[in-house]
Design goal:
The structure is a single chain. This protein is mainly beta. The protein contains three helices and twelve strands, in the order ββββαβαββββαβββ. A hairpin with a 5-residue loop joins strand 6 and strand 7. The radius of gyration is 18 Å and the shape is globular.
Amino acid sequence: MDRETMYNLTYGLFVLTSRSGGKDSGCIINTAGQVTAEPNRVSAAVNKANFTHDLVKKSGIFNVSILSRQAGFEIFRRFGFQSGRQADKFADFKDWRRSANGLCYVTSGTNGYISAEVDQEIDLGSHTLFIAGVKDMEVLSSEVSATYAYYQSHIKPKPEKPKETGTAVWRCRVCGYIYEREELPADYICPVCRHPASDFEKVTL
């Protein structure tokens, strides 16, 4: 079985945001879509390990900011490569507004947002699938939406090539960054995605 076949499915990319107990947060997801038109409902699958998942569970509401091809890697770094449990993802971030439901949505590198209220939850093991009624939405730009494939080929930084083939290097499993040393320091932090040394693997290229 070729697991890479799944990469041929088309996915959009989104920042899903919510708020509970006075705390705002958001995370990158690639599984959001319309499920019915009348009534207008959307679905969003969110990993249970994400802090934003807990906020949606508590508040019952969320916003989906639809990322466009104008989105820079910084948006993915901010909302995808750090946890809302340890970091305020909206600190020093100016490209957002608050919608009528009181939640944040991203205004830069996006072409629209949808505000939704959860009607149903389906436990998928590692994820929860939220089915939600659309309460508000707005087009923000005419830019084409970013797909997962577009992110991989045009937005995500390319790993550096080693100086010599056959060299043993350390590669970040999250973003592909390559660290060219014999040993990786235990406290090393990836300069691209900010993940720790535990997310690196030793490979020969």
